[in-house]
Amino acid sequence: LVVENEATMPGSDKETDLTERIEAFLSDLKRGGSGTGPLRGSAETARETTALLRRITAQARWSSAGDLMEIIRKEGRRMTAAQPSETTVGNMIRRVLKIIREEYARSRGSSEETDQQESLHKLLTSGGLSEENFRQHFAALKANVIEAINELLTELEGTTDNIAMQALEHIHSNEVIMTIGRSRTVEAFLKDAARKRKFHVIVAECAPFCQGHEMATSLSKAGIETTVITDAAIFAVMSRVNKVIIGTQTVLANGGLRAVNGTHTLALAAKHHSTPLIVCAPMFKLSPQFPNEEDTFHKFVSPHEVLPFTEGEILSKVNVHCPVFDYVPPELITLFISNIGGHAPSYIYRLMSELYHPEDHEL
Amino acid sequence: MNEEELVEYFRAQMRKDPDMASAVAAIRTLLEFLKRDKGETILGLRESLTSATDCLTGVDSSVAVSSGGELFLRFISLTSLEHQDLSRCKKVMEERGELFLEKISMSRAKVAKLCHTFIKDGAKILTHSYSRVVLRVLEKAAAEKKRFSVYVTESQPDAAGRQMAEALRKLNVPVTVVLDAAVGYVLEKVDLVIVGAEGVVESGGIINKIGTYQMAVCSKAHNKPFYVVAESFKFVRLYPLNQQDVPDKFKYKADTLKTVQNLSEEHPMIDYTPPSLITLLFTDLGVLTPSAVSDELIKLYL
To answer: Which regions span the lipid bilayer (chain B) (predicted)?
Structure first.
């Protein structure tokens, strides 16, 4: 993307406008990570990222699919660097890259069976080590890609509703459901079931930000009987719970979760009592990362929520940490409910191969 | 190419490059056999290749040679479906065969690239017996300036673990050789377990040197991740349900199978590790969960 120097050339207004929007988005992302709970939900971030990518496709200068992919990758790297914990940005970028590859393949006329994924079959039958370099120019490519991105946006808009529609199959009358913190997806899920069924919800407050309180207020406004408990009481209360339903920040490639802190405790307590753990996560939260990258996995925010600065004397003698996320291994999860239906954690690899291309795992 | 020439060629390939996987040597030998074959029909070609593979498994009874042979046969079938004329077909087969060999020679590098990020600085790794793929992964991690130490089991009856320890010492990696019986004892100190595989079965489990199953069970009990590194040509169409289900021809060395009458008195050389004990598999097709393995096999054989 070319910047300020071309102020005299036509079409440069569009480009500077585009650059400004990207910069605005980046600074928004950087600010949004202050940890007092998400200032914007993941769904909004996903929608904004996709809209921005559509704008880049429409307004940036590119002549072949390869150029467009390079531009998007470059912007993508900057966006993920701005806020590494916000994985939905990276996921949307990878979805769009896959869309571009598919549209390119379709324009070339090659069937989608010549799927670019590595496989044993491909090893045996391919005729050459030729690399697909995406250099051919197709006039209709831009329009096709923009149309496909529009479809993606429509899908994103419907995700929460699609998940909530499945609520009646999973929640039965007189059940006791436990959840932790505040998840918009789980909120919609429970509210949808509450229209037809009567059940009881126990919300773990999820210290130190105590988002559970907001969740409980919102649920009780919808007429659901709610109880708030402290995180320490999770194990004690678990024996009375029928199901645990939680949201998550990210679903990792091995089927594990990166969720709000306290979720691993909840999952272990559920496993101990053989209570099913259901995760409501839309497809845009699925990320091709594995939980090995310790450096970028955790996010620590200001510890004054845990131990306020007013406790002056002991501050110099004590180390205080305030991590935001928890890792939950796939063995503890029973079911994933996403906008395309319910899946077992062992099926995640299949969904990943359908959403993203292996070469895009590293932007 | 008759039997002796075949066996001699195979042995020569193994001698020439001791670092090469036995499956690759088998495929190379079969490709050479294909080039020299004077048959007139594709069916005849398939039959002679099948008997050649049997001959090779008579020399080296490991799962890898068998899976390499099966893969090559599959390759022949797929190619022969495209071209009906034998001479044209053979030309295409030879070209593709060379290409295939080139690709799989890069597979170890791909596996190492995927796996080394899972080794963190200061990690203590436990491994079993001598595996060239694991060695490659550890080489890559050492080259990335990661500090780690390794525990290797001695792995009787052939003490292959000592060979591994020697190779690691040359890389300046601190290594300790432990008894096979000491796996449970050492696991509390260890951060992760990485093993190679002689074969990866359809369920996502692995067949590897005896003692691997024990190590996997202990890792599960200690909650340590158990990683398997294997190239994709080791995927084999077997589905053992327990240890007894693994065919005898893989369990014992080729010489033992030929000479000994009563196999129940022999010690098996391999065991089967079920997929429930494996955390992740690193292959040149990517990082796979055990449930993803059967998908890959289906894609090939369907």
So the answer is: none
